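Quick one, probably user error.
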């Protein structure tokens, strides 16, 4: 067995201290300095280290106990039944390993099973509550606390309409469930708080936890909390012999039970259910952060039993985290197509939001200073929906003293011309002094053929590099002169791939004016600005000849963009390039709906998630064709948020701000 080094021992000790600090904040004080997902990620790292080095496991490790201590303001309630915490699974491999372990354990007990029947239930992200009834009447309601002792919150739980004060049968029973607040109620509550000048609540889970811990039950009653009950911990009458039947039994007693559960014949069906609810979870009015898996047969549950801290018969199958922790291994600079230098963090690869990430942007020098991020730091990485991975926090408490601050360079060789760089006046960004370095040229080429510009399918960065290295292209218009024989013998090309590429180039000859403008890499001109310019001027010739005074008055353009456009088209090299391109490219006529004939005029849309019947670009085009605007972030003034499958944080922003949300079907109806 490998012996843990001093560095590993120190890492374990720091992880324990950090986890305990944040778990106390989260579970006991109802504060959240970091997200629950980030805390899970730290805990997962600690579990792996303790598994690899069992000699480091101590009785007081966070992995060896359930939760924090109860608040002193409440009466302490000893639990008659220990309140266990499920172990977590994060990947399909984890859940298959759980299935294999379950079958091995049962085989060791003389019960052989090729496939086990499971019940998959939604994991509600709220506050666990334990309810005790005597002769059918509610006696006490308690929080989980540390698993042995909880807090008496009966006075608050009695205010929740979904909690029966008297059961349909006069049983002595203890049940377990989750207290939660709906997203709609959070939006309502935040509107009221904003009117009264109070700070807004961040998420329904924190509000539910805070409401249950209020000393005044009127506060809990006003917040309209809800519950789902999912387990019988103890009963004076026999409990059904299957988990699915137990849920029916709970409902018959008068409790609210979440209806979205499924009996799964094998682990493959469990995984399918988990995948399905990853897409559907955000559309529910309550927070869901995974799926709880339990062996269906109670006799098998009894045979499997418990470890020191968790049941063997069940596991929490978490959805891919949008926040995780990882370590920065290096920081390098990337040169963009306009010469702007972007610092990029190279990370220990980590799974976040369903994909493995090894790089994240640090944006600019000021952001590095604000975060005080250093090479070797442990950081929180965030990826929500379609957002690029972003470092949101440095966990300075995990520093060892060996971390290296990043020193912004005086020169960058890749910029050419001696590597000189300069800070852009009035901005946080640095750029190459030389505006035409080879690195910038390549970036501009990548951009020219990208989906937002000419959209030449099959002409990615690696192919562009090959064409540049073999001197087959030097100017954008050279793409349209490429012949089959020019590229057939180059690396990466076979006859079929050459034919496909030439076909894609041919299709790209017909372009819209906005895409054409975007492709030129005009400083300050992105997709939205290109749309504004096209609507106003209608033709490329009118834009080329526009005066600064004409440009700065256009809504969405202004003086900075106006000056950039004028300067670009005054350059004789740029004018010559446009002239050459127009020999090969046909620009579609700009269609601007007549006033009064644009049904979506004055409406703004935010798109999030994946639409099944069209791409995001197609959805944008349809909105704009009807006079609507597509914007990047949600505000109170947003007209609609269009939510497809797996929507990002913009969906949650819409809930908080009370912005109308359209699913795909409702969006199509609106377009009609």
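Nope, works fine. Designed sequence:
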């Amino acid at each position: 067995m490998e012996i843990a080094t001093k560095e590993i021992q120190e890492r374990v000790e720091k992880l324990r201290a950090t986890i305990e600090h944040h778990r106390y904040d989260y579970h006991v004080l109802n504060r959240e300095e970091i997200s629950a997902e980030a805390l899970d990620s730290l805990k997962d790292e600690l579990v792996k280290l303790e598994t690899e080095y069992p000699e480091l496991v101590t009785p007081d490790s966070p992995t060896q106990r359930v939760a924090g201590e109860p608040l002193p303001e409440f009466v302490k309630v000893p639990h008659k039944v220990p309140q266990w915490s499920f172990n977590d699974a994060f990947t399909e491999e984890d859940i298959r390993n759980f299935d294999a372990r379950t079958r091995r354990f049962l085989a060791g007990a003389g019960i052989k099973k090729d496939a086990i029947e499971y019940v998959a239930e939604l994991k509600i992200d709220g506050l666990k509550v334990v309810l005790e009834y005597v002769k059918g009447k509610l006696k006490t309601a308690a929080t989980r606390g540390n698993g042995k002792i909880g807090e008496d919150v009966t006075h608050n739980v009695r205010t929740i309409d979904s909690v029966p004060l008297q059961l349909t049968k006069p049983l002595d029973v203890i049940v377990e469930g989750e207290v939660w607040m709906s997203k709609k109620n959070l939006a309502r509550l935040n509107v009221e708080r904003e009117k009264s000048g109070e700070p807004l609540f961040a998420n329904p889970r924190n509000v539910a936890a805070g409401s249950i811990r209020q000393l005044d039950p009127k506060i809990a009653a006003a917040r309209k909390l809800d519950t789902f009950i999912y387990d019988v911990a103890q009963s004076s009458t026999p409990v059904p012999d299957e988990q699915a039947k137990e849920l029916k039994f709970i409902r018959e007693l008068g409790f609210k039970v979440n209806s979205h559960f499924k009996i799964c014949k094998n682990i493959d069906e469990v995984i399918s259910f988990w995948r399905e609810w990853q897409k559907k979870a955000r559309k529910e009015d309550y927070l869901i952060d995974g799926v709880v898996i339990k062996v269906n047969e109670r006799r098998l549950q009894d045979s499997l039993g418990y470890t020191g801290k968790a049941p063997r018969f069940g596991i929490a199958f978490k959805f891919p985290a949008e926040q995780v922790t990882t370590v920065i291994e290096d920081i390098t600079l990337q040169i963009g197509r306009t010469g702007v230098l972007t610092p990029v963090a190279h990370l220990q690869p980590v799974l976040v939001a369903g994909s493995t990430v090894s790089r994240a942007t640090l944006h600019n020098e000021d952001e590095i200073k604000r975060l005080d991020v250093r090479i070797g730091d442990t950081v929180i990485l965030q990826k929500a929906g379609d957002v690029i991975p972003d470092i949101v926090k440095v966990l300075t408490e995990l520093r060892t003293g060996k971390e290296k601050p990043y020193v912004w360079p005086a020169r960058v060789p890749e910029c050419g011309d001696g590597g000189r760089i300069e800070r852009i006046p009035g901005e946080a960004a640095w750029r190459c002094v030389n505006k035409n370095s080879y690195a910038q040229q390549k970036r501009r080429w990548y951009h020219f053929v990208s989906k937002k510009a000419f959209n030449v399918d099959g002409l990615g960065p690696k192919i562009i590099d090959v064409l540049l290295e073999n001197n087959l292209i030097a100017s954008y218009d050279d793409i349209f002169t490429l012949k089959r024989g020019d590229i057939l013998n180059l690396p990466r090309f076979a006859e079929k791939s050459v034919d496909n590429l030439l076909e894609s180039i041919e299709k790209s000859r017909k372009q819209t004016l906005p895409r054409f403008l975007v492709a030129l890499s005009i400083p300050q001109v992105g997709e939205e600005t290109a749309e504004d310019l096209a609507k106003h001027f209608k033709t490329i010739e009118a834009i080329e000849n526009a005066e600064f005074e004409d440009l700065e008055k256009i809504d969405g353009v202004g003086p900075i963009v106006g000056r950039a456009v004028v300067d670009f088209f005054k350059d004789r090299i740029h004018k010559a390039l446009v002239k050459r391109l127009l020999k090969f490219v046909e620009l579609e006529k700009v269609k601007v709906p007549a006033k009064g004939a644009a049904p979506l005029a004055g409406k703004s849309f935010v798109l999030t998630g994946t639409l099944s019947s069209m791409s995001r670009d197609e959805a944008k085009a349809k909105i704009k064709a009807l006079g609507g605007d597509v914007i990047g972030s949600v505000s109170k003034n947003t007209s609609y948020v269009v939510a497809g499958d797996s929507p990002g944080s913009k969906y949650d922003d819409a809930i908080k701000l009370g912005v109308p949300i359209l699913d795909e079907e409702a969006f199509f109806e609106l377009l009609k």
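The chain is about 35% helix and 20% strand.
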